[in-house]
Amino acid sequence: MSASSASLIRRPVPRLINQALPHVILSAYTLFALFPIILIVINSFKVREAIFSVPYQPPLPGTFDPVGYQTVFSRASFQQYFVNSFIVTTASLFLILWAGSMAAYALSEYQFSGNRWLGLYLSIGIMIPIRLGTVSILRIMVGLGLVNTLAALILVYIAQGLPLAIFILTQFMRQVPRELKEAARIDGASEYRIYWLILPLVRPALGAIGVFTMIPIWNDLWFPLILAPGDATATVTLGAQQFLGQFVSDWNAVLASLTLAMVPILILYVLFSRQLIRGITAGAVK
Question: I need a labelling partner for 98 at 20 to 30 A (CA). Which of 22, 29, 46, 222 fits?
Fold first, then answer.
């Protein structure tokens, strides 16, 4: 066999390694990220002793026990917690996307004095955690009589999510061709009509913002614990805490409640993952 033919045989091997290496790394990272979730799910179907003795073993006939889920649905108003979390998350997400897209349209379309400074001021909210103002927020909600209401949580989450929504949507709306908007104005379309026309063009950004916004809202424990700790207004994350005691914790119920809390957000993430990827990669392909 000549040297040239041997080099041709050896040449595809490094190329195959280069193609397979990213997939191997990403697959390993995926398993590493999913491992805690899988561990919670499998242990939620075990007896208490098996959770600590064989935590990595799947539930077998000798260790399988759905007592955690029975406890959750018998002792807690978990259905109400799901409804509260769903109302807070969907209402906050809708208002964030609606108000954020309108503000982004104004900042990207109209050039006025202070436009750049206003955009910078709104972007400061991304860098400053809203939890630093917890005491002031609590005083405002007490003054408005909104403590132990879902409206208090919705207002706080809107304020929390608007800066990121406005910042991202402003950049996307500036990339919409001006000729398209000018043609709509020539046809007699109002500014509100033009806004609704270009909104589908920034759908990937809306999907990305939706994912980045709904996960922190659904998983938040801080503000529900401070602003709406009542049983009628508790969210899923707050409801799961009632099984954690100072001396004795019902780990079966804790793991079952965490599993139930994860299922809706995982389903929504899978549904919106395509829009998330499009929103993240849109700027790289233009």
Answer: 222
